[in-house]
Amino acid sequence: MSANSFGSRDKLQVGDRSYDIYRLDAVEGSARLPYSLKVLLENLLRTEDGANVTADHIRALAQWDAQAQPSKEIQFTPARVIMQDFTGVPCVVDLATMREAVRELGGDASKINPLAPAEMVIDHSVIVDYFGSPDAFERNVQREYERNRERYQFLRWGQTAFDEFKVVPPGTGIVHQVNIEHLARVVFDRDGVAYPDTCVGTDSHTTMENGIGVLGWGVGGIEAEAAMLGQPISMLIPRVVGFKLSGELPAGTTATDLVLTVTEMLREHGVVGKFVEFYGEGVHALPLANRATIGNMSPEFGSTCAIFPIDDETLSYLRLTGRSEEQIALVEAYAKAQGLWLDPSVEPEFSEYMELDLATVVPSLAGPKRPQDRISLSAAKQTWRRDVQNYVASVQGAADEASNESFPASDSPAISHDTSGDKPRHVDPNGSFRPHNRVPVTLDDGTAFELDHGHVAVAAITSCTNTSNPYVMIGAALLAKNAVEKGLTRKPWVKTSLAPGSQVVTDYLERAGLTPYLDKIGFNLVGYGCTTCIGNTGPLQPEISKAVNDNDLAVTAVLSGNRNFEGRISPDVKMNYLASPPLVIAYALAGTMDIDILNDPIADGTDGPVHLRDIWPAPEEVAAIVESSIGQEMFTQSYADVFKGDQRWAALDIPSGDLFEWDPSSTYVRKAPYFDGMNAEPEPVTDIHGARVLAKLGDSVTTDHISPAGSIKAGTPAAQYLQDNGVAVKDFNSYGSRRGNHEVMIRGTFANIRLRNQLLDDVEGGYTRDFTQDGAPQAFIYDAAQNYAAQDTPLVVIAGKEYGSGSSRDWAAKGTALLGVRAVIAESYERIHRSNLIGLGVLPLQFKDGDSAASLGLTGTETFDITGVTAMNEGGVPDEVTVKADGKEFTATVRIDTPGEADYYRNGGILQYVLRNLIRK
């Protein structure tokens, strides 16, 4: 350990151990900084080398101007990297490919190794094929191994071939929950040096670790690979929003209600690219699990992180989850010595201030398509009736004929049928339209019912966002118990599932004696993984799916997840709602969103109608069972051999050696193309001439719209590729499981069934106009891109606001680049996707304030020339470039925000930059 310019090296004595630390108080101005910036400051002190990190960088951070707009660049070196398998497999594919590229350029392939701990949790691959039965978990896991054997063999090879790379096998838990329960250190002890645990991850919800005081956020897979290889992350010193909490949550509300309220507030305030930090007396009233839930949802309100400082609650959680007393003592001593311990009486300096009285939080949902669209539970019925008009063709335009802004809370509409249209309608007493299309369905087992708009087709207790929180999980289980005792069960059209984030959840549900009640109403264990939250819902029952699609029914999903974007949960479900686990069960019992769930009976029980208030558990009962049912030994036993896996994992055959033996027939894992033809030195940057528009898109296009995700639909280019390679339709698996095969992924880029390409009229899905053909006919985006590539025609994408919001899907950028897109021109970007585009050599441009495709008269049929890019060859980054499009001319801002990003772009991408640097060394 070397000294730095500030003489901050010192010793910290904890018990009988002494640690080297870098004292923050050696730097003038550090005491006033928010917690998150103090962590960054320590990072710079410890990594100062006079080149990447200098004394000027440290002073710039210590003298942070809270009111300034971000402009000062620093280099942040995370302590570790965490991955899940969907994003992690292509990372390992790229590392394996880099080894070969290094060898071909005359370097030492063995140098390609993670230099910081890199841990992967396999949680994204299990699909809910089976549900509602005692053997659902075993059958789903068995199916998971059958589908993903090639991928799992590859990951087991990676675990043996790369140093500092560990894999948590399937069937263990969800990455973020495993992270906070076991992997997170909070304070690192490495080679005798103690320092804050910082961690970036290949999943946007890495921010869940913010709940235990670990600074980190989601990055693209390519950025994570660079971090693993010792590259710092280039970033601008951010603005920090201080969010003051006061009061306590009222009875009847949950952590889910709180986080939906916070999400709504912060999204409305505007926190994209900013840090959010929680402080105040109300923080003490929040259990660690609630803090983690808020941290998890950071991507939903758009901030880089959403962090809570370390306090006694943090220590209690570390003790509960089985961390050693030595580690807990280090965390406490280090945090107090460095000014990182939460003191509610002290208000750090922040850029912006917000405040929430926890007592004002009310029960809530969010939907039908965005997490920030919070709905008070008391208004859920009338809001659904309003929103469903956007999804049911028979009532399009009805808003012009009748008011639909509000409905009486106790509304029980009379039913009348209007046979003038294709579908009958309900009409409320106040004249408002309600769609109605009752369709008779008979299941394979003889169960018969009528399916209607608003019926809940999916009810899933899923995602680490909520299953990490024992209060909402015990609350849900108690509600199930009360429901069973009153003779209730799920409606037969509801696909129910329980997919906890760790095995500890099932342990404490078993200890509390509550599992049988969950099973009784259909919430059997289906797997330990993300499942429905990421679209791994599995198919609906065939009879239900057919009824939905044949009759264009707007059925719904209710899930305890963090994302509800269009087309994400199920291709059969149009409207998706986020809710707490107890409410998920309540809606499964009711079977419909068209209900005032606070006042109407949710179902008939053995003794008559049952209301939600009749089965909702008292908070005192929930707290008592949490206290009596969860113990430290559960965590120590569950995580004792966390990297070992079951006998299925151990039985996988794996190749040996430093270089992977690629199987040319594999449809899961293929050698990445990013280094093909790469020279030791980069080619000069060029302007873009003669480009065509591949897609013209509107606002809020998410990475779910761009990146291949969910099931692979028959008849698409990806399906055709798989069939051409001998894969049967039943074995297509999901796009996520095939992220290690670029041939599948580029065929699924921009192929989301809800994507609306404005080059076409009233068409949804992965289609565009192909201007290489006479008449520019409609074509699959992939097919058109191949035709453009054959003519050496570069491509651009035009977009609106918040382009690339959502998950940190590196394939949203990889697919874009491999389709031949050279530039994106958008009104604004979400942070991670903009960074990922640069990391793949795609130029992110932004319309000037007030400009848009519409205001400039751009139709997307033009040919584009973009000039001024070559100024980057001089070493700097131009503020703007000139864009010409068939006689229209405008300037666009270059969104390459740091010198580090400019280096990546000049090299054609971040991996090429890293590889060339390794070879030079």
TrEMBL record:
PROSITE patterns: ACONITASE_1, ACONITASE_2. Its cofactor is [4Fe-4S] cluster. Residues 719-849 form the Aconitase A/isopropylmalate dehydratase small subunit swivel domain. Keywords: 4Fe-4S, Iron, Iron-sulfur, Lyase, Metal-binding, RNA-binding, Tricarboxylic acid cycle. Gene3D superfamilies: 6.10.190.10, Aconitase, domain 3, Aconitase, domain 4. Residues 397-437 are annotated as: Disordered. This is Aconitate hydratase. The gene is acnA.
